[in-house]
From TrEMBL:
Keyword Transcription belongs to the record: yes
InterPro entries attached to this UniProt entry: AraC_XylS_family_regulators (IPR050204), HTH_AraC (IPR018060)
Start and end residues of each HTH araC/xylS-type domain: 185-286
Name of the protein: Transcriptional activator FtrA
Organism of derivation: Microbacterium azadirachtae
Record GO terms (molecular function): DNA-binding transcription factor activity; sequence-specific DNA binding
PROSITE patterns referenced in this protein's UniProt entry, alphabetically: HTH_ARAC_FAMILY_2
Keywords: DNA-binding, Transcription, Transcription regulation
Gene3D superfamilies registered for this protein in UniProt: Homeodomain-like
Length: 289
């Protein structure tokens, strides 16, 4: 993360009129926008150079859309579907009817590792529980009137990027399920996308993977690992990232624990100890020194 979205490049693709923009909210490096389109409205994004500053976009529309990339065959996106557009392709979007469209602009650096397993150039994704959750969360962010803080900006940025990553993982199971290595990669991607959720654990992961807990444990055991251990490790990583982030300095240890998926500060301390680390307070003080 940490890449600032170029608002002019993302919010104003060619063909988009300023009056089509209803609302825009920035959450550090992620930008959320809401638009009203008339039937026949057409947007076009030219391919962006791979310069480390490009953004991908997730479109969620209440109207049907037609999407084409690099002059390929157009794809039909029914109302309510999610449309993921990569930054390195010429992309054209046409509104079939009149209505609202939400856009989420995410730094490509947060998503690029999943590109090899995604089919084609543009991706129309059917609604799923995680996709519906992203839609509801994005809608609430665009309609709420409270002023965000620097801390909430960072946390919302991270959550939105991980939700988009999780939606993309769900969208490519036919590739990610190919072989044991592919399945464990998918499990690790899901854990990373949901690690901040306090109620997410091995049972929920097995459900997301469409396998039993025993099968999941055997999958990780083949690499001399265990899902609970790996989930604890990446939550510890997240906690340490938050501790080292100057914008999160006002957060107490209990708040760091809550935002990292731990039930409480004691759970965070135990996880640090199992990882061979000093207490969270000592780690935080050392990071500030």
């Amino acid at each position: 993360m940490g890449i600032v979205v170029d608002t002019r490049a993302t919010m104003l693709p060619r063909g988009m009129r300023q009056e089509q923009l209803d609302v825009a909210r920035r959450f550090h490096g992620v930008l959320a926008t809401g638009h009203t389109l008339q039937a026949g409205a057409e947007w076009w994004w030219p391919a962006r150079p791979a310069d480390g500053e490009e953004s991908a976009v997730m479109l969620i529309a209440e109207i049907p859309l037609t999407i084409s990339c690099d002059d390929g065959a157009p794809q039909q996106a029914p109302p309510g579907s999610l449309c993921f557009l990569r930054p390195h392709h010429d992309t054209r979007v046409i509104a079939i009817g009149a209505g609202a469209v939400m856009c989420l602009w995410v730094p490509w650096s947060a998503l690029s590792e999943i590109e090899p397993v995604l089919p084609g150039t543009g991706l129309v994704i059917a609604p799923s529980p995680l996709g519906l959750g992203l839609q509801a969360f994005l809608s609430s962010l665009l309609t709420q009137h409270t002023e965000p803080t620097v801390i909430t900006d960072r946390l919302v940025e991270r959550l939105l990027a991980e939700m988009v990553f999780g939606v993309l993982v769900e969208a490519a199971p036919h590739v990610l399920h190919d072989g044991e290595a592919g399945r464990i990669d998918r499990a690790r991607s899901i854990m990373r996308a949901r690690r901040a959720e306090r109620d997410f654990g091995v049972v929920a992961l097995a459900h997301d993977m469409h396998m039993s807990v025993r099968q999941l444990q055997r999958l990780f055991a083949a690499e001399d690992s265990a899902p609970a251990e790996e989930l604890r490790r990446i939550r510890v990583e997240l906690a340490r990232e938050l501790m080292s982030d100057a914008d999160c300095a006002p957060l107490g240890i209990a708040e760091i624990a809550a935002h990292s998926g731990f039930p409480d500060a004691a759970g965070l301390r135990r996880a640090f100890a199992r990882s061979g680390l000093p207490s969270p307070r000592i780690v935080r003080r050392a990071g500030r020194a």
